[in-house]
Amino acid sequence: MMTGVAVVGAGHWGPHLIRNFHDHLGSEVLWVIDRDERRLKAIGQRFRDVALSQDLGDVLEDDRVDAVVVDDQGRELAAGE
Q1: Fold of 3-70
Q2: The whole model's pTM is what?
Q3: Dihedral sign, CA of 57, 61, 62, 67?
Q4: Which of 17, 25, 18, 20 is nearest to 1 (CA)?
Q5: Does the pLDDT at position 78 exceed 50?
């Protein structure tokens, strides 16, 4: 069974996470979410089969998504952030 993955954050580690999940036989990257339109454009050029958005709500509404991976760019996130 394929695991549907969404990656939130396409900054420092994001492209590595996207590549690893994209290349893994057991997972499929369905979404990449980032606030920066330039980052999304770069990801879209490399991974043409991945949906892109600046709105996390798109991921939360997609029943195909089984896992959400967050690139926090080395910051510690507090609950609700």
Answers
A1: Rossmann fold (3.40.50)
A2: 0.86
A3: positive
A4: 25
A5: no
